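Data availability (excerpt). The following record was deposited with the supplementary files.
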Amino acid sequence: MALPDHIELVTQTPDLAHDAVTVVVTVPTFRRPVHLIKTLESLAAQRTNRRYAVVLVDNDSDHREGVVAARPLFETGQINGILIVETLRGNCNAYNAAWLTALQHFPNMSHLLVIDDDEIADPDWIEAMSRTKEMFGADLVGGPQVPVFPTTETGDVPRHPVFTPPYQTTGLVPLLYSSGNLLVSRVLLEANTYPFLDPRFNFTGGGDANFIDQSVRKGFKAAWCHEAPVLETVPANRLERSWLRARGIRDGVISSLVEKGRRASEPLGGFRVFLKSIALLTLSPLKAIMAARRLGSLQNSLYFVHVGLGRTLAHFGYADEQYRHTDGR
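Predicted structure:
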């Protein structure tokens, strides 16, 4: 099938050997041209014998800052791959456009990887993620997103749950939570239909968590690769307690929405999720107190209260559409 009209193929590397590519790295970008170049440079410096290509999707059809910054890299062959524009705004739309382009243009692609435009890949990132997929027969592989803070005056914030990885060792895991450092097999993509991520999550976030949750429930294996970090550049506002509080509430909203979707076909499924949310909110102060020492402070442990609050607010229609903001933060 041809790409939809709202996906524009801008350019690709001259003499791109589509059939030879076995791994594709997809990079969604929105108004971060300076850091995008750092991300692409880290991809160009990968240490692997695998033939890989990059699919970069600019989700800003008005200003196209990503196109302007990256186009010379593609056309001179510094980056091997395809540059597209997704004219429909939204986080999920951008991911879907990149994944569909990868499927259609690289027939021998085994799997794709995802990295955001505020991240820098470890030189062995592609190789480590790919080996973990093969070692454990996984269709989803996640890895650490290591925060790089703008100052050393961070206090106890680095121990906040938002900035700590969910797992510490490589191996099979029950679930993954983010697409910021993710591998997805071709088999899994082809078991789904476009759009892969639910567009209802376009501006709230959580489309990736929903996709992963559904995939695991269908029997696809998930794994964690602790040897494949990406460095995530953290803007100064993410050190503020107001941002951390909003992030916890947002995580709770997403958790509730994902679970409601999972139980949609069950009798009284939505009501059961509501009762669970109320229970989690009620118990969250106790959980916060118990976690305070492990997380370095009571302030950090309030994350669990904020998650419980977000889960409950979601039942009353609350949604923080963070990706409507110009910087997606």
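Summary of structural features: Residues 269-295 form the longest helix (27 residues).
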